[in-house]
Every structure is written in structure tokens, then in C-alpha cells.
Protein 1
Amino acid sequence: MTRVSAWQRVGNGVGLVGVLAIAWFIAETTPTEEAWQGPIVVSGDIGETLTGRNIEAVVSEVRITETVTASNGWAGPTTGVWVVVDASVSAVVDDLGASLGTADLVIDGVTYSASERPDDGTIARQPLTTAIPVSGPLMFEIPREIVETEASQPATIQLAINSDPRADSVLAIEVDLGALPLLPSVDTNEPSWGAL
Amino acid sequence: MKRWFKRNAVALVAVAVLTPTTIAVTFSTEWSSYLSTRATQPVEVAEGRTAEFDGTEWRVTRTERVSSDSRAGVEAGLPAGSDLVMVTVEVNPGNATTEDESSFCTVRLGEYEGSGDTATRSWGDATFAAIDYRNPAGVESGCSPDIIEPYVFISTFVIADDASDNLGVQLEIPDRLPQYLLLRL
Amino acid sequence: MKVPTRWLVAVLIALFLVASAAFGGLEDADTPPLPQLDVGESFTGAQLRIAVEDAVLIDAFPEAFITPQPGNRLLVIRATVDNVWDKPVTTISRIGAADNVRPRGIDGIEDEPLTVSVISDGSAYPKLQPAVPIELAFVWEVPDGAVSQSDVITVDVLDKTYAAGGLVTYGERFENPFVAAYVEVPVTDVGAGVGVDQESETP
């Protein structure tokens, strides 16, 4: 057996360090399960039509109110306040089993979901049709403290076809709740089907 | 270096052949069971022609398209920006089925591009949609497995009014997947 | 001198046991007693803060379209529930707040309630929003006579443990409900009358 020279030892050491560095790099940059299963987000503002793979929506108005009365007569008592989002939503390519499964409001990392208490007075969870929008209100109950101050309060409205938002499009609409006045009461429109 | 290749030639060739083969076999077993439950193989039928599928003969005899702006559309209570498409299909159940039942099917309407057979957009049946249109009395609105004599059904679809004329009915029979009938309109 | 390893281990274990005698030795540890809440006092669990307000016997709950079988009545536990998590919480059984309140030892009440409804508008199975407390009615069907006016019943308040990820599951959830506190509540029989507030809900 030949003697291993000093240079070969150094070479082995450098090679080992190199392999370890590459392994560390791969481990750090491998997407986590959340990353590769995560939703594909399409962002926009109020008034902008956002188009995902199979969902398209435009949010026309956001209002904050103490009490809300829906078109079917439901009036919503709450210990917090209501955020009323008027939106128009449709499927894009395929409406088999499509419905507004996710309608969330995310404020500072806390998620609020659109209330189903108004039943057919809201478009939450209503079925969607390809290219023929359904328009109506979404009502979110949020704690009063969030809108008590005048400070800016950025929030995101998230809309998606599935109640499990993984690996499909999520439309994200940015809104500043702090810039909206707190109205005493709001009467919402009846959900309607058809182009605006 | 060359000597190493020579000595290990057989092993290297084996790796080069077996690696892609193993990948292909593993993927295909998974994918084929997934694809066999979905409608991926259309049996195309040109406009007006009769097709034989699942022991039954199918033929589109009439297609009507009513705009939401027209008087008929307003009477039918169509949503703004939509058209109502009514497809009349003649069904001739063969006596091939054993239980004295004809085929059960689900129908969707697809919009196509050129002669492609993958729909760019599709719509579901409007039997329970929020419109005022109802089929004439006695006319079925879809496949009826308890009818074993020849019969006619009219499928209705509420589609976007910007849909082109290149439409087709996707008729799926669960037992026949992945094959399905594509009736061009 | 070489000491065999197994001797060393045995000696260490013996020393450890002797030392533990100073802390109670091998006796069973005392389980802490279950806290008792007053009526209206809240218990804060990992996911929900629950305060049992009262218990009411009633003939039917028409706002939520519930009418019991003949010979049965409805036991309604009213509770104020607050979501202390950062995501909406469902109220359905097996995964939601219906698992968190249970009257104890009453004939006919084994498991999940008939329904969980919002007191103010009768909507069934609401989704509880973070930091928005809401008054809920947990409704069970009981045979007539199982509970009567002025009986004091024990209502258990349960908590759940948080879990996330997993080999075949995805996302966060709370599971494995366990009794965390209890309340002694007197029952009021309101007969056929309605002792609850209601806003109109056009069916």
C-alpha cells in the first residue's frame, strides 16, 4: 500500500468540506411541505378583477358597520363589528362542484371566515358558474378593538374555490380597515346571478 | 480512467437501462390507475351522426341557443350575459345490458378550440339552475336508466354568451371511464 | 480494580431510588383536583374560553327547527364561548365546540348535542371567529322527568390538545377532548315558553 501524501490528505479534507457544504445548502433550500403544497396567490386591490386558475373575482366595496341587515331579513347581532365585503365571483374553466369554499379575512396573522349565519343572504359557500358571476355580500365578524383606533390596519381578503386552499389559486385583495369609517348600520344587496 | 470503464462496462450498461425503466414502470402503474377513473379518452362523434357507445345508440337531433337578451331568454329568467343551450339527444338503448336498464350518464357542455378534444371551458347541467325554463312535459332532461325503449332527452346548459359555436356535449357513463362520448354540436 | 458495568448501573439505580424517597418515593402522585367554576365564570382552554351561563328545560326550540320526540324535552345549556385561537373554530361534533360542553350523569345524555345554535338568531353550527365571544345554546334531548325544575346538574367543560402536521394529516387541529373543569348549574324549567332572546330570521 502506497503512503498517502500530505497533499492527498488536504485534498480529501477539502472534498469532504465541499460535500458537507453542498448537503447543507440542499437541506436549507428544499421547499417545505407547506411551500410546495401552498396556494398560488394572485394579489390585487379593490375594484381590480383578479383571475386565478379556476376562480375570478372583483371586490367592489368594503364597509365596516355595527349592525348588518341582509336582503332575506336576517339581522346579525354580534359582540364585535361586521366587515361587509361586496364581491362578484365566478369560475373560469370548470364549474363541476365549484363553490366559494374559502372566503377569509386575514388581519395581522389572525383568520376570520365569512359568516354563514345569513344563509342565502350571503354568497359565502354558494355554487359558482363558469364565466357567469354571482354577486353579493360577504359578512365577517371581527373584534371591535381592531377598528377602534384610527391607525392603519392592513387586511387581506382571500377567496378560493376549495375550502382546502392547497395547490390551487387564492385571490388576495388588500384593504386598509383603518381607513374605513364605522357605520351604524348597513343593508346588504340580495345575491344575484349574472353579468354586472 | 478508460480501464475503469472497461472493467465495469456491463454494470454501467445495466444501470443506464434499468434506471429509466424502473422510473417509467413505477410512474405508469400509479398514473394509469389514476387516469383510468377520469374521462380522458373521448370517442368523438361528428355533428348529426349516430354513435354507438355502451351498447346504446346516441344522436344529437337538435341544438338550440337562446340569448338572455331575447324575449325567450327573458321569459326563461336567464342571468345577464348568458345563453341557454338546449341539446336534443335521441337514445336507442340496445338490449345489451343484463338488468333491463339502459345507460346512466352525466352530461356537461364543453367549449372547444379548433378540432381539439380538450374543452377550454365547460358548464354543468342546468336542470336545477335558478332559471324558469322547464322541459316540455314528458321529455326527460337526461339519461333515464329505467327507460329501455328508444327515447329522447333534452339537456339544458346555461353558458356564457361569449362562448364560441365550437361546442360539444361530454357524455360520461361511469362504467365506461376513461372512455367518454364527445358529441360535437 | 476493574468494576463490571452492570454493578455500576445497579449501584446508581439504588442510589437514585434512595434519593427519591425524600420526594415521596414510589407513592402515586396526587392528581390535581378538577377546578369548579361558578355559573358565569369562564374557563380558558387551549382553543376556547367557555362560561356556562345557565341550564334551561324547554319543550321545543322552533328558531332552530328542533322538536323532540313525544315524551321528551330539550335541555339547553347556554354558554358564552370565545375563540382564543387565531383561526375560525367550527362548532360541529367530533372536531368543534360541540365537544367542549357535556352535562354529566343525566339520563339520555350520552354524547354529542342535538345541535349547537346561536342564541340571538337561531343559526345552527356557527363558525366561531377569533376574539368575538358569542352566546351559544347546546341542546340535548332528554326524557321527561330526567331533569326537573331546580335540579342542580353538573356540566363538564372540556379542553382539547393542539396537534399539527402528521404523516397522513395536514394542518392544525385540536383533538382528544378531556374534562378540564365543571360547573354546578341549577335548572330552570321554562315549559313551552321561550326564555331566549331572538332576532327575526325569515326562513
Protein 2
Amino acid sequence: MCSHYRENGGAAGQRGSAAKHLSVLLIVLALSGCKREERDFHGLPAGGTITNPKVREVPFVAGGSVPADSRPGPYEENAYAVSQGKTLYNQFNCSGCHFQGGGGIGPPLMDADWIYGSRPENIYETIAEGRPNGMPSFGRKIVPDQIWQIAAYVRSMSGLLRKDVAPGRDDAMQVRPQEQSTQKAKPVQSGIPKSAELP
Amino acid sequence: MTSLQYRYAAVVAALFFQLGCTRTPPQSDAATPAERTSTLPARVSPDTTASSTADDGQWIMPARNFASTRYSGLSQISSQNVGQLKLAWTFSTGVTRGHEAAPLVVDSTMYVVTPYPNLLYALDLTKPGAPLKWTYKPDPALASQGVACCDLVNRGAAYFDGKIYYNTLDAHTVAVDAKTGREVWKTKVGEYTKGESVTMAPLVVKGKVLVGNSGGEFGVRGWLTALDAKTGQLAWRAYHTGPDKDVLIGARFKPFYSQDRGKDLGVSTWPGDAWKIGGGGSWGWISYDPDLDLIYYGTSNPGPWNPDVRPGDNKWTAGIFARDPANGQAVWFYQWSPHDLFDHDGINEQILLDLPIKGQTRKVLIRPERNGYVYVLDRSTGEVLSADSYGYNTTSRGVDLKSGRLIAIPEKATTTGKVIRGICPAAPGTKDWQPSSYSPRTGWLYIPHQNLCEDVEGVESNYIEGTPYVGAIVKMYAGPGGNRGVVTAWDPIGRKAVWEVKEKFPVWSGTVVTAGDVVFYGTMEGWFKALDARTGRQLWQFKTGSGIIGQPVVYRGPDGKEYVAVLSGVGGWAGAVVAGGLDVRDSSAALGFVNAMKDLPQATTKGGMLYVFSLP
């Protein structure tokens, strides 16, 4: 979005007295769009902005329902961080098991099924702590800030992030529709671990 | 009988005595060695090593015998009457992952090993419907599901001396009392947290259980291990990378070709310490020649797949070893694919035959190899006698019989940051693990295989213990003709295909051939088929509940009737798209196999079931 602004701005400048409403529009775009490119060079404090994620996999609470945590993950609206998440997803071998979202050794990540929850904090927990059916714990290998970036990217794989935040290109051979053109798959907690199907 | 035949009869008798179990006496329909010899075509000499294990009524190891012929001497079901074959009974395994195992039949009991969680069922063949006698549960670690590259398969068990031996996904070997189902011993052979798993069927040779690891996609260091069959104690371990002392290379090692001679080649053919995470497991088949007293088995692909980070021949990966089963000492080695570029593991079955070649009877080893050639090796020396293409190939021009080296086509070499298109055969090769059979009556091999090509781009690979170490993005698709599967009848003396049957999907099941001149195999849609061994004509088929990737077996029931049994239950690498519920929008899913199998979910669903057939 910000690069669009720069390109569009240059073109507008050449036209000199271009329509005022265009520049107004561009300013609006610049103000709203640049959050998408926001970079925090210090990273998140250890544990992330959701310093104590309330990880709950069921909406069903003994003793009466309490509102679920509805805070977004820290990078849900940051295209730069999601793009970093995509790079890290490959570098830390997430792609070795889940490939580019279709799955293989691990389950697919581009479909609607979620075994351990689709919320950012669920995914953070899955990556950091591991899961019993073959998902290793990466908490000692990847710093929290980067786990949040990967978690945001994982959500983009099934179209859960805004189209202008989700990545639009691959660094290697393209093997799937781009994340930003992936239709949103409404999360279903129907996915059960494959081992639960066993006798 | 000739004196030679008496000798083999004596060996068989001695073996039975050693096994010490009661067996049903041979029935009249079983071909005696003499009868079998008389039906042999003149150009094929008697199959010496094939007859050294069990009578025709039983099936005590997946490959049927030490020579790995998967040939049954039973002929009640024949090419004349197989059209009347009917379902006799079924058994649900309750497991939904890919069923690659061969059921075993010992005395009047059938033994079935399932994919993870590796249950062992014993079924009573003396009673109608073969009711369950007992179930053994080894309880492999849940987390080991995360280190199985290609579905959670198991290729079967082996029977020896009153016990059933098999391996579990979390790298343990177990011995189970064949009568009671009680665990006799359980030995940890590998570390699943480091990416090691075990999916292969063990072979028991001279009181030793031979086991190898999987994990060529996880940066493991490959090995073959021998355990004492009585106690489960480690007898020896031979690594497939590293210094000679670890590889068990010593004074007896006499490889045929010069490039395999030299000190510590398992270190010097790798950069730095790359051999420590270089792959080269042995998850496939082992054969044994009692006369030469040698075992033969192959080693898997080097890791990672991206070849740029491992310049050199990467010994001793993607090759074959002959070893002394007593101490594991290497006798010879041959490398099918030096510096493998395509994940062309060298672990396929080897069929041991004595064949007339250029006027001389040679002790040979036949290997339909993943890299696309049917090799005929002298199994005493490791010399390549011939290597002929049996599928479409763009990666190599053949094998130089002088040097023994594969003649690679440099334009198809995979590399970092460049998409190489039209690589044929693809990563699973012209044939993967699925074993062939050999009939001494026709003199032909029945090879189940695939016809796949691929595009590959090498990418950065980071070694993180316990996670995949591959470094390649792969996209497979059907080879020329569009049929992804083939069954080829191959004449190893004439060095050519005799007939071929094309299948829509890869033929990921084994074949079995009988003295009734019938070849059995299954398709990934779920058809179990019978072909005329001489013509390839389809004689019969039955639609099972799920795709078939198992190994059919043939046995004689306590009622004297001949039965054919096969596990149905799609999965494995080829069927992971169904067994693992993968998303077909990602062409690279399951190491790129999903792109070639996008229509499989419409053709079959998962679910493990044993099917047993007989004549009415």
C-alpha cells in the first residue's frame, strides 16, 4: 500500500495540478495503509504483546461462560511482519511438514479444519509448545516475536487475514494460489488428530 | 532328484526342524521341487535359494523366501479358473492410514500388522470367518507420527522360531510369542526425536533380526542393525555414512568398481561433517543367499534432497551392500546413484536367481531400481552384468558397464534457485518400495511401478534436529501417456519387457505370482486384479473398500484350499492425499506427490480391511 502511494504520488506530481480529490485520497490511503508496513525494530517483548495468552480451545466453560479473548494477534494487520512470517515459515522447516499449506507429514494449513484452534494465540501455543500428535515444540528455537509473525502468516494461508496484508508472491516455484487470493475458509474445529481415528 | 536337489531338500528339512513347529503336511496340489523343476522353461535353471524357506502352504516373511521371489507353488487357483474367485472372509483393522504390509500365515494362524499404532492381530484360520485370537499393542509414541515422511506405514512382520518380529514407527523392534501374543522382548533401535522411524519389515537370518531405519528426509544417519532373535540384544550395527569402522568395512570388503575402494569414503565423499546428517537409511528389503552366506540390501537417498550442499559421491547412500550376517562385515558395495539428485533411494527389493547369462549359469541379483533401470548384478562380486531401462527416463542415458556408473544427463541436475522441469522419473522413481515377484515357470519378473515426472527447485535447507531436512520444492505429474501406473512383465535374460498393463494411478501394491500362472496386484482405486502371467490379460477383479497399496500373499488353509489375501487401505506416499486429508490446492504437498494425485480423493476413501479370496 505504501509503495502504491509512492508510485501513485510520483505519477500525480508529473501531472502538476492534478485533481485535488486524488491527493486527499492519497493522504487517506497513506494514513490508513502504512500501519501495514509498520516495522518495530526492537521486536516484541518476550512473550509478545499478548503477554499472557488465554489459550482456550473450547467455548464450553465449567462454572459459566466468560467472554473469549477477542484481541487480535500483534501482526494480523502488518503485511511486513506477515511476509517475514512467510520467510520464517520456510526457514524453520514448517514447510518441511505442512508444505505450502497443503500438508503432508503435518495437516494442511490452508483449509478450514483446525485441530487445536485457529486464533492467533492458539497457533502461537501450537508452535511454541508443540502438540502431542507429532508437532514439535519450537519454543526453544524461535523467539516469541518471530512465532507471532509465523502465526499471522499461518492464518493468511487460509485467507483469514485481510487481502492487502496477506502475501502476494513466492520466493521460489509457485505451487499454490497466492495467500492474498485464497478464499477465506471459515474455521471449523472439526479437525481431530489423525491418531484419534485409531482403535 | 539330482544330488543338488537332495541338498536343497535337506536344507529345507533342516530349517523346518530348526523352526520346531508343527506344520500341515504338503497337500497334493503343492508342487514338489521335482515337479516345479520339470515345468521350468529350459533356459531357466532351478531357483536354488528360493526354495530354502517354508512350504507352499505358508507365508512366513513378506517376500515369501530369502530369495524374495514372492512366488507361490500353489496351483489350485489357476489362469483357467481364477474367474470364479469369490470373497471368503474379511477383517477390519480399524486403522485408516496406508496399509502396505503383507499378512503372514504360519501354521493355522494369520498375522496382520497395521500402520501406526502398529497393532498385531492374530486370526484363527481353523474356524469359519477366521475369528480374532488376540491383539498385541506396542503403544508407539504419539509424537513419532511427526517424523514419518510418507504416511504412517508398516511393511510387515517376519516369523521365526515361534515368534513374530516387527518394527514400530517410534523405532522399536518387538518379538511377540506367536501362540499367545505375549511380548517376548522390545528393543529401542533408534531415536524418533532425532527423526528416526522404522517402517520396514525385518528379515530374520541365522538367528538375527535385521532392522534398518527410515529418515532420509530428516537428516538421520542411516544404518542396518542385527538383534539377537532370542534376547533382542544388539549384535551389530553398520552405519551407511562415516568412517569405515562404523560402516563395518574391513578386510573382507572387495567392491567390484574402483570408485568404491579407498579409506573412509563415507567421510571423504562428503563436505565437512555433512555425513553425520547425510541420510542413507535402509527402509526397504533385505534378501539372503544361504550358499554364499550373504545378505543384500539397499541404502536410501542422501540428505538433504538439495544436492548443492553435499558435493561428492555421498557414500554409502543410494547403493547396495552385501554383508556377512554373522558380524555385519561388508563384502561388496555398488552405488546405483552416486551423488543422488532426485531422492532416488536405493532400497528396492532384490531377487536372487541363478540364470544362464552368455552361456554360463550366474548367481545373480535382480533389482528393478528407482533410478529407472532393471539391474542384473553378479551377487558374488557386485559386478553389473546389465542395466536396462524399464520406464521413461530423462535424467540418465544408461549405466556404463565398465565403470559401473550411471551416465547422468547434466541438464536435469537439480540445483538451488532454479526450476528444473521434466525430470523423469520423479522422486518416487520408476518404482518405489512396492515389491515385484518372479515366476520360475515363465522366467519373468512382475514389476508394479509408476510413470511420473516432476519439476524441482532446490531451496535453502536448514538442519533442525527432529524436523525435515529436504531443501527442495517438488511438483509431480503423470509421465508420457498419462497413465500413472504400470505393471510390467520383464524378461531378465532377454532384458526387455514382455507385456505391460497400464493403470490410471501408480501401482503402489506389490505383486505375487503363482504356479497357477496368475499374477495378483491391487490398484489405488481399490480393484484387486488377477492377470494371466503369460499374456497380461486380465482374468478377474474385485472392488475392495479402499485403495490397495498392500502386498498380496497366497496360502493353503487348514481345509486344504488355496487362498489369496490382501490388505486394502489407501495411503503411503502416493495415497497420503487421502490418508492424511491433504489439500490438493498445494502442488508441493506431501513432497510434491499430491500434484500427481489430485483426483485420488474422488476415486477412493480411507479405511483398512483385510480381504481373503478362494474358489467356491
